[in-house]
From TrEMBL:
It comes from the Bacteria. PANTHER family: SLL0298 PROTEIN. Residues 21-171 form the DUF2062 domain. Keywords: Membrane, Transmembrane, Transmembrane helix. Coiled coil: none annotated. The lineage of its organism: Bacteria, Pseudomonadati, Pseudomonadota, Betaproteobacteria, Rhodocyclales. It comes from Denitromonas iodatirespirans. This is DUF2062 domain-containing protein. The chain crosses the membrane at residues 61-83, 90-111, 131-158.
Length: 188
């Protein structure tokens, strides 16, 4: 699993040599942000899934800050935020609103988001912000509940998948050793 993930993640040297990241080198070059093991991968996925529900372009910034705080793998956390996109964000926010409304017992009805047609990007973003703030407390509670649920699920799913992979590899090595031992015993 580690070899598979390493093919897609940048190495320590590429970050060290990047001129745009030089001001942040002391923080971003901490070894635990680039180390890949069961703990750092599970924590990175949890941070990424949690921060993926942050609105707008602040998802990756939130994930990077979370990685610095929890000392988990930075590239994996950044990639993990990409589950939210223009196609998935509205259903996720609708789910969060529904969860929050059920939890706080608001009893209000869901109002669909503003349509993009006929508006400039600035007008639409203003209307979208007004729509989100109009949803208020149930959305906030639902987002926190959904983010925590996704983070916990992601954390334990990665831990379980990593363990499954290790047990499978360990058993394959055992079978290979047993076959080599049997081959050696019959060939002698």
């Amino acid at each position: 699993m580690r070899k598979f993930l390493r093919r897609f993640l940048p190495d320590h040297a590429s970050v060290h040599n990047n001129r745009w990241l030089r001001p942040l080198q002391s923080t971003l070059l901490h070894p635990s942000l680039w180390h890949l093991n069961r703990h750092s991968a599970a924590g990175a996925v949890a941070v990424g899934l949690y921060c993926g529900l942050i609105p707008g372009p602040f998802q990756m910034l939130g994930a990077a800050l979370g990685c610095v705080v929890f000392r988990v793998n930075l590239p994996l956390a950044l990639v993990s935020t990409l589950y939210t996109n223009p196609f998935t964000i509205v259903p996720l926010y609708f789910l969060a609103y529904t969860l929050g409304n059920a939890l706080v017992g608001g009893g209000s009805t869901f109002v669909p988001p503003p349509e993009f047609g006929g508006m400039s990007m600035g007008e639409w973003l203003t209307a979208l912000t007004a729509w989100i703030t109009g949803l208020g407390y149930p959305l906030l509670v639902g987002l926190l509940l959904l983010a925590n649920g996704l983070a916990l699920t992601g954390y334990f799913a990665v831990r379980a998948a990593w363990r499954w992979y290790l047990v499978r590899a360990w058993r394959a090595r055992q079978r290979k050793r047993a076959a080599a031992k049997d081959k050696g015993a019959t060939g002698a």
